[in-house]
Design brief:
Blueprint: H1 2-17, E1 52-61, E2 69-81, E3 88-101, E4 106-122, E5 125-139, E6 172-189, E7 192-201, E8 221-233, E9 236-247, E10 250-264, E11 271-280, E12 284-293, E13 296-305, H2 310-313, E14 316-327
Antiparallel strand pairs: 1-2, 1-14, 2-3, 3-4, 4-5, 5-6, 6-7, 7-8, 8-9, 9-10, 10-11, 11-12, 12-13, 13-14
Length: 342
C-alpha cells in the first residue's frame, strides 16, 4: 500500500514538472540536482541518514567553444537533536558556490548559512521548514573581452582607433541574499522514501549592478522538486527525481531515473552502484553513474547537448562530478532516541 502511495506522489510531481519548459539563467545548474540538494532548498538541510554530511560538486561545461564555464560547490550540514522532545530535530549547515564563464571571466561567488527545523508527524511523515542567509558577489574582467572592430582582416588590433572598450563603474559588487523553503518527507524504510517541496531564493530581491544608478534586481527563483527511492526487490531500488526551476521569464525542467543495485548489504561492507539518465528540457541528455561504498558516495555524469547550441558544441556538453561523505556518530548508552530520517 505504501509503495502505491509513493508511486502516486512521484507521478504527480513528474507530471507537474513536465508542464513547463525553458532555461533558467540566474542560478547554479547541476545536472545531478539530486546530489546538490542544498542548492535546491534550505529545508533539505539535515535531511539524510546520518549525523553529519560533507559534500561537493564540480561541473565543467562547453569546453569545445569559447564560452566555457565551470562551477564548484562545497557543502556541510548536520543534525542537532533535541534532548527533550524526540519528535523534533534541527539542521544547520553552510553552502558555498563559485561559477565562472567566458573570456570576461563573469563570475558568481555565493555563501549561505542554512538552518532547518523538522517535526515528525508520525514515523512515516516529516515536515521541515528551512531558511538561508548569506551574500553573493558578481565580478567581471573586461580586459579579456574582444570585439569585431579589433579584427583588421589579417591581424588583431588590441587598441583600435575608435577606442572600443567596456567602461564599468565597478568590476565586482556584493549583495545580501535570503532564501526559504519547505520539505515534506514520506518514508517507509531507508530504501523507500520521497522528499517533495519548494525552495525560494533571493527573497529580498537584491540589486545587481555594475553601473551606479541602475536599478536591476535579482528575481526570486522558485524550485519545485521530488526526490524518490522505491524498493522493488532485493537487490534493486528504483530512483526517480524531478525538479522545476523558474526565475522571472526563464525556467527549466529536469527529470531523472535510475536503478540502484546492492552488491553487498553487510554492515560495514555496504556496496551499491547506480546507473541512469537525467534530462534537462530542450538542452541535454545526461547519462549518470554512482558508486556507494558504506558512507561514501561518488557520482559522475556527462551532458550530451541537444539544444540549438549543439551546432557549436557538436553535442559535447560537460563533465560533472559529485562526492558525499556521511558521518554517523556512536550514540551514548543511555536511553537515546532520534527522529528516524533515512
Amino acid at each position: 500500500m505504501e509503495r502505491k502511495r509513493l508511486l502516486r506522489y512521484l507521478s504527480v510531481i513528474i507530471l507537474l514538472s513536465c508542464l513547463t519548459k525553458g532555461y533558467s539563467q540566474n542560478e547554479i545548474h547541476y545536472s545531478q540536482f539530486n546530489n546538490a540538494t542544498l542548492n535546491l532548498n534550505p529545508a533539505l538541510t539535515g535531511i539524510f541518514n546520518g549525523d553529519k554530511r560533507i559534500s561537493g560538486n564540480y561541473k565543467s561545461q562547453w569546453r569545445a567553444v569559447p564560452v566555457d564555464y565551470f562551477t564548484i560547490s562545497g557543502n556541510y550540514d548536520q543534525k542537532i537533536y533535541s534532548q527533550k522532545n524526540d519528535k523534533i530535530f534541527f539542521g544547520a549547515g553552510a553552502n558555498f558556490n563559485f561559477d565562472q564563464a567566458g573570456d570576461g571571466k563573469f563570475g558568481l561567488l555565493n555563501l549561505n548559512l542554512l538552518g532547518s527545523f523538522t517535526y515528525m508527524v508520525n514515523k512515516h511523515f516529516f515536515v521541515t521548514p528551512g531558511i538561508g542567509l548569506g551574500f553573493g558577489q558578481r565580478s567581471i574582467n573586461s580586459a579579456g573581452l574582444s570585439f569585431g572592430d579589433q579584427w583588421r582582416g589579417d591581424y588583431f588590433d588590441s587598441n583600435p582607433p575608435n577606442g572600443e572598450k567596456i567602461d564599468l563603474d565597478k568590476m565586482s559588487f556584493f549583495y545580501p541574499d535570503a532564501s526559504a523553503g519547505l520539505n515534506l518527507r514520506l518514508q517507509n524504510s531507508s530504501r523507500t522514501k520521497i522528499d517533495a517541496g519548494a525552495g525560494f531564493c533571493h527573497l529580498n530581491a537584491p540589486k545587481i549592478q555594475f553601473y551606479d544608478g541602475s536599478d536591476s534586481k535579482l528575481p526570486i527563483t522558485m524550485s519545485l522538486y521530488g526526490l524518490g527511492s522505491l524498493y522493488i526487490a532485493q537487490p534493486f531500488d528504483l530512483i526517480l527525481n524531478a525538479a522545476y526551476r523558474k526565475s522571472d521569464s526563464y525556467d527549466e525542467t529536469l527529470l531523472g531515473a535510475g536503478l540502484k543495485v546492492y552488491l553487498s548489504t553487510r554492515r560495514g561492507k555496504e556496496f551499491a552502484i547506480v546507473g541512469g539518465v537525467n534530462y534537462r528540457s530542450d538542452d541535454a541528455w545526461v547519462p549518470t553513474m554512482e558508486v556507494h561504498v558504506n558512507q561514501f558516495r561518488v557520482g559522475a555524469s556527462y551532458d550530451i547537448n541537444n539544444s540549438p547550441f549543439q551546432i557549436a558544441t557538436e553535442k559535447r556538453g560537460g563533465l560533472e562530478v559529485s562526492v558525499q561523505y556521511i558521518i554517523t556518530e556512536v550514540k551514548p548508552l543511555k536511553d537515546y532516541r532520534s527522529c528516524p530520517v533515512y
